[in-house]
Specification:
Length: about 325
């Protein structure tokens, strides 16, 4: 590596790369150290539709989500690969007393009428949300980082302090790896199994908040549709289960009949990097280590907001 760098970011998922880019925009020299290839990260298999799911409802989470929403709107307008704005329906079997806690970030949020949501659901919302195709977006993030002078080092670390060989300030964006690297027992996997089918022409995402048949969402992309899914805490199994796949297909086609007969392309499992107590975004007392991990299934949704906050903390110690 030629010359010294100011900050080392450990982790090359969406949290690590967005943080690295924000650090570069502050004029800092950055290296990213990663144990995994770009498309081997959890981020690579994410459905990646903006929605602050299972992240807590605090003001910080709302702010981070809103910042990322606005950034993705700008990127979609600029034609960034993999970023689009997609109509979304969110359905539930129980009626909420007011607007969702995250609603302030979404300009066109509207409650669905009874006719629009159907007889089985008591409530529902319509809005336009960022949809990110990660196989396209992650390479764009990496290219942006490299074009800005960044370097990638492929190395598996045993403890986080090993990263200081590259820079005096470390940003820990290791996701589920933080359980080992900084001995955070609050970090745990939440298994998610998906089915990918050929897109028959669906334009709208559908999310059922409380489907009694199971965790359910239908997210169209340019060529396929992501059908989900499962939300299984503390399950490390990354092998797709055929019975689970059949159940996902059954309940998704029940809600969106246009999916019947769609050709199955792939079966995917990802381990969401969840954390009891929510994301950890803070600096150690000496300021030389900044933690940015534990985003669960909302890594994309929180990405740019958390990147701003983490970059501010790290830059203060350079």
């Amino acid at each position: 590596m030629d010359g010294a760098v100011d900050v080392v970011v450990v982790g090359s998922g969406v949290i690590g790369l967005t943080t690295a880019i924000r650090l570069q925009e502050k004029g800092l020299r950055v290296v990213v150290v990663t144990a995994d290839g770009l498309l081997s990260t959890t981020s690579a298999v994410a459905a990646a539709v903006w929605f602050p799911v299972a992240t807590g409802t605090g003001s910080e989470v709302a702010h981070w989500s809103a910042v990322a929403f606005a950034e993705f709107v700008r990127q979609a307008a600029d034609g960034v690969p993999g970023v689009s704005m997609r109509r979304t329906r969110m359905l539930s079997h129980e009626r909420e007393p007011g607007e969702p806690w995250w609603g302030a970030a979404v300009p066109d949020l509207r409650r669905l009428t009874a006719a629009e949501r159907g007889p089985e659901c008591a409530d529902g919302w319509s809005f336009t949300a960022p949809a990110i195709e990660m196989p396209l977006y992650l390479p764009w993030l990496l290219g942006r980082f490299i074009d800005n002078g960044g370097e990638i080092v492929h190395r598996r670390l045993d403890v986080l302090d090993q990263a200081r060989v590259w820079a005096p300030v470390v940003v820990n964006a290791t996701g589920i790896g933080a359980r080992q690297l900084c001995d955070d027992r609050a970090v745990h996997p939440v298994r998610g199994q998906l089915v990918l089918v050929r897109n028959p022409g669906l334009p709208t995402s559908t999310r059922i908040q409380d489907d009694p048949a199971g965790y359910t969402y239908i997210h169209p992309r340019s060529a396929d549709v992501v059908l989900g899914g499962t939300f299984e805490p503390d399950d490390w199994n990354t092998a797709p289960d055929p019975a689970t796949a059949e159940a996902i297909l059954a309940r998704c086609t029940a809600h969106v009949p246009e999916l019947r007969g769609a050709r199955v392309i792939d079966h995917v499992v990802g381990l969401r990097p969840a954390r009891h107590g929510g994301p950890r975004l803070e600096a150690e007392p000496d300021g030389r280590t900044v933690h940015n991990y534990g985003h669960g299934g909302a890594g994309v949704t929180l990405s740019w907001g958390c990147a701003d906050a983490a970059a501010d903390l790290a830059a203060a110690s350079v």
